[in-house]
Every structure is written in C-alpha cells, then in structure tokens.
Amino acid sequence: TPAEVKAKIDRAEPFVLIDVREPHEYQICRIPYAKLIPLGQLGNRLNELNREDEIVAHCKSGARSAKAVDLLKQAGFRKARNMKGGILAWSDQVDPTVPKY
Predict the structure, then answer these.
(1) What fold is seen in the domain 2-93?
(2) What pLDDT tens digit does each residue of the chain (101 aa) get?
C-alpha cells in the first residue's frame, strides 16, 4: 500500500521504487525516489534492476504496475510487488499535495 511504501522511505529501507507510467504523467506528479521506467520499456530495461532487490512498482491506479510485477516475476525478480492504488492512492493516503489527473 502507499502507507507501507512511505514507511519504507521514512525508515530508509533498501528497496527500489519504479514508476511505470509515461514520461508526461511523471512530469505532472511523482513520488520521491521513484525511478521512471515506463511499462512499454520495462522488458528492455531489466538490466537496470537487480534481481535480489525488493522492487515496488507503481502507476496511476495499480493496473499497469500489476502488469509490470507479472513481467518482473517472470524474469526472476522474486521480490517484485505492486503498490496497490497507484499514485492516486498515494495522494489520498500519504501526500494530498500530489495532484490527481
């Protein structure tokens, strides 16, 4: 959940947060520390990620990031997880200053 991701950030836990939205969406709003890897590019950019890391994927609502997690798990990223609700839920639960679009 967004609250769990925020807690990980606050505790400086080691994990990788990837944003699988498109660049124009990333320009509207973003979560701190998130690395932009659009879903359509993810398959070609797996070398940028470590299979041993915990990876949390997010998008706008959770649908694209669920697809990203499926792709990651098929590629051997066992610790890949989806941030359910996406950045819309982040705005509701963590940071209301993040604009909804």
Answers:
(1) Oxidized Rhodanese; domain 1 (3.40.250)
(2) 999 999 999 999 999 999 999 999 999 999 999 999 999 999 999 999 999 999 999 999 999 999 999 999 999 999 999 999 999 999 999 999 999 99
Contact 22, 60 (CB under 8 A): no
**E-strand spans in 1-101?**
16-19, 35-36, 55-58, 80-82
Sheet holding 35-36, edge to edge: 35-36, 16-19, 55-58, 80-82
Distance CA 68, CA 80 (A): 9
Residues taking part in catalysis: 59
Cα(82)–Cα(20) distance, rounded to whole angstroms?
A: 11
